[in-house]
Amino acid sequence: MAKYFRIFLFFFLFPFELLHAQDLKNGVPFKMSVRGTATVPHGLANKAYRRSFTGIYDVTVNFSYAVFHGFQIGIQYETNLWKTADNKIPGINTYAQSHHGGIRVGYDRVVGDNSVWYVGLTMMEGQVHYYGLSILATPDPAILKTKYIYKIIAAETGVYFYTEGSFAIGIQAAVDLTDYHFDPYRLYLNEHKAYIASDLNGNLNYLNVGFMAVYSFRKEKAKT
C-alpha cells in the first residue's frame, strides 16, 4: 500500500516541484495549443454495455485556438477500445473500437503562477466497430450488425501545469454522452450472457479519467 501511495504522490505533486519555467501572472501567453489525453474509459450506461465491456484505453487529441479571454475553439479526434473481459463475459474476445471527431469549445483559467484549470465541451460524430465476435448459431443478417454511427457530447474538466517553456502536463476527467443505444442481441452476446429488459435501458455513456499533455505555441507579444 505504501508503494502505491508514493506513486500517487509522485504524479500529483511532481508538477508543483517543476513549475518555474512559465510565469502565468499575466495570463496564458499563447494563442494555440495541441492537447493530448490518455485515459481509461469506464461505462456508466446503458447497463448491458457496462455488463459486457471493460474499457482498455481512450486517446484524445485536439487543436485549440484562443479567441479571447481564455476562450478557445478547435477540433478534436478521439479513439477508444473496449473488450469483453473475463469478469464480464468469460471465454470470448470481442472488441469494440471507436473513432470520433468534431468541434471543441473550451475555457482556460489561470489559477496559479504555473497552473491552469480548464473546461471543455465537444460535439462529435463517430463510429464503433465490433470484431472478434463469437456466434454459436447461424447469424441472421437482419439481426447481426457490427458497425454503428452515432453522435457524442463530451464535457471535460481538469488542470495542467507548465513544467518547462511551452510544455505542460496535467490530469483530466471527462464524460461522454452518446445517442447510441447498445443492444447485445445484435452481436449475439446473449449466447454467452443472460440479459434482462432493464439492461437495455438508456444510451451509451462513459467516464474518462487519466493524464494529459499540452504543447502551446504562437506566443503573444508582451504588452507594453
Tell me about this structure.
With 224 residues, this protein is mainly beta. Helices cover 10% and strands 54% of the residues. It contains two helices and eight strands. An eight-stranded antiparallel β-barrel has the order 1-2-3-4-5-6-7-8. The chain is elongated, with a radius of gyration of 21 Å.
In short:
By secondary structure, the protein is mainly beta. The chain contains 2 helices and 8 strands; from the N terminus they run αβαβββββββ. The protein has helices at residues 2-18, 47-52, and strands at 30-45, 54-68, 71-83, 95-110, 115-131, 147-164, 167-178, 205-219.
How much is the radius of gyration in Å? 21 Å
Round the mean pLDDT to the nearest integer and report it.
88
* Oligomer kind: single chain
Bin the strand percentage.
over 45%
Number of contiguous helices: 2
The spatial strand order of the largest sheet comes to: 1-2-3-4-5-6-7-8
Main beta-sheet strand count, sense and barrel state: 8 strands, antiparallel, barrel
Write the layout of secondary structure elements.
Layout: H1 2-18, E1 30-45, H2 47-52, E2 54-68, E3 71-83, E4 95-110, E5 115-131, E6 147-164, E7 167-178, E8 205-219
Antiparallel strand pairs: 1-2, 1-8, 2-3, 3-4, 4-5, 5-6, 6-7, 7-8
Pick out its properties.
54% strand, 224 residues, mainly beta
